[in-house]
Model the fold of this input.
Amino acid sequence: MSNVPQELRYTKSHEWISLNDDGSVTVGITDHAQHLLGDLVFVELPEIGDTYTEGDDCAVVESVKAASDTYCPLDGEIIAHNEALSDKPELINQDPYGEGWIFKLKPDDSGAYDALMDADAYNELIAEED
Amino acid sequence: MPFIPHTDPDVEDMLRTIGAHDIEDLFAEIPAQLRAEGLGAIPAGVSEMEISRLMRERADQDSRTLCFAGAGAYEHHIPAAVWELTTRGEFYTAYTPYQAEASQGTLQLLYEYQSMMASLTAMEVSNASLYDGASALAEAVLMAVRANRKSKSKRILMPRTVHPDYRRVTNNIVRNQGIVLDELDFDLEGGYIDPASLPGDPGDITALVIPQPNFFGVLEEVDALVDWAHGHGALVIAVVNPISLAILTPPGEWGETGADIVCGEGQPLGAPLSSGGPYFGFMCCRQSLVRQMPGRIIGRTTDLEGKTGFTLTLQAREQHIRRSKATSNICTNQGLLVTAATIYMTLLGPQGLERVAQACHANSMKLLAALNETGGVKKLFSRPLFHEAVLQFDLPVKDVMRALSVQGIIGGVSLADDYPELGNSILICATETKTEADIKTYTDSLKRIAVRMTANRCPVQPKMSG
Done:
């Protein structure tokens, strides 16, 4: 059974999103996603300062099996990316909701976060997939 | 017996099962204006006897000419062992293997090839080859656009000293992807890109292409060009002749930090001219860009029993996994030509390759000196050369070349169409295959032709009617 923390928000494409105090959000991929991908060998991070709209592919996570896009969950600007993943992509496997975060985004619309899927809905989604 | 496995009843069965009337129904969604509508330019099939005869006749057109043409394809001596070994049953396929790991011999050969190319170019990684030199440059441009994520312009600086065919092929492949190829003009005195002519504030550039030697055979100021490009956030794509790398500074060592992507035509390494193909392209890059590199890469590893083995690696970049976002659609590459190149490089070794490169340079210098003595010919550019040069003729070059060809001499390649500003000039080359006697044959013929073309017309003319 995958770990789906209650306090986070989610997307259909298996990103998690947490709201920071300064209004920015932190984004990573879920425990369920890292399980499906298997051992990660490379992460292509988005450039700081780039802007994306919701649904744009902005990062790539590559495992021994496949390379998958990570999609931007909200419209906004990239303000940080997790440099540690360049050398240790396995952080995503080991700690997907902590040290395995991928990027931080400053959303254009501060209220957009609230419209994202909550933990219960995401649990339902992955139950359907299984 | 036809080699197509589907009989007409098979096809009908399949169509009925999926509820289609005709194979055309399956393509109905493709708009009419996008369809190629048949293969009008392809002639009807002929019998084996007829095609054998046609091929013999075509092959005869190639034979026994004395070739002083280069311009991207070069006549080199190929030791007999190269193709004797390459055409052994174990190697005899154009493809990288499908059941890859079962073909350890082929994988090992490709791994050795990659190691040699990486060493020759002083780069960290090589792929297992591409289609040819021109499409390798196009792939390098696409790769640079993917890899240089700081640049948003998709703007490539493409000097006019790059082979005109390479520029055309690259433009064909990249123009519909929003990529702009900005031409960079050359210095008419030196026949090179004068670094002093480069703009101080060029704006956002994705990559600069640097040919070495350039299309005119001239050596570019590669160090200054690399440092300028990197100083303005552009990647550097080097287009090089692999033979020349035995005596020139390899791209990995150009400037402060070296080139980022290196590509070129592999034909000089053991492939015969054979009317223009098949050849192969090569590509090398920095380790940090490897995930954006197209083509297959073979890696060395150890199996469960601790034995060394070879395997396809970084396949997540390829289309069977990455689908439309794959870094390339070229994976069945020019395996057989690469086999020949690997054996060629192995037989010659670093010293042998160096001697070939030096002999090419020395022979082209001899050729230029001999032509200079004949008069009526002027070498155009002042900068150092590898094994080609641009010569301007007093007499119309196309006529001179035609007259030479009647005597079995390919005298060079006319530049009139691609470089009208160079006037009446040709590109000429002498590799290690050219002897002093060959050079004398050329200059003697040229003198005779010049006498004939400049001689006063005979005052007695035959009477022509109409």
Q: What stands out?
A: The mean pLDDT of chain A is 94. Residues 11-109 of chain A form a domain with the OB fold (Dihydrolipoamide Acetyltransferase, E2P) fold (CATH 2.40.50.100). Residues 8 and 18 of chain A are 5 Å apart (CA to CA).
